[in-house]
What does this fold into?
Amino acid sequence: MLTATLATTRDELLQIHRLNQENHRDHLSPEEKDKEGFVSWLYPVELLQQLQDLAAQVIVKDDDRVVGYALVALREAAPFHPDLKTMFTHLDSVRYNDRYLADQSFYVMGQVCIDKDYRGKGVFAQLYRHHREAYSSSFDLLVTEISVNNIRSQRAHEKCGFQTIYTYTDAMDKWNVVVWDWGT
It folds into this structure.
């Protein structure tokens, strides 16, 4: 049975790390990336633990197996990794609803990934419903960035309620900044 929950154990973080490694863009063929999507960043276990120490990570489990995750990255996580710091600095200058994100209550979904055997089974929607259940009382917005080359992810986020508010290019890729506004 698939259950959305918050991570509580080191083993769950290790399973997140495994999924992250298996689905990283550098480990997939161009055909797999086009068809299945991909993750752009590698998250070492130590970084996952630092994120977890600030806010529990959202996961979906099949019994004891983590089959999907959608990471929670609070603003306080920015110093943990140069890419997180750059992302938060950049996001602060993006405007949404005529205000800078820096002046709004948001956190970043740092990455979403679903085990290949569980795609198309509602895990993506479960992850985001649980984000909302767990964190909407503390935040108005959930923000993330999606590679413009990751069409599958973009469509899935839009179906869930995200909207693109900004697009930019950095050294790694071209990104769509998307927002799920829980206040509307």
Notes: Residues 57 and 147 are 22 Å apart (CA to CA). The chain has a mean pLDDT of 92. The chain has one domain: 2-181.
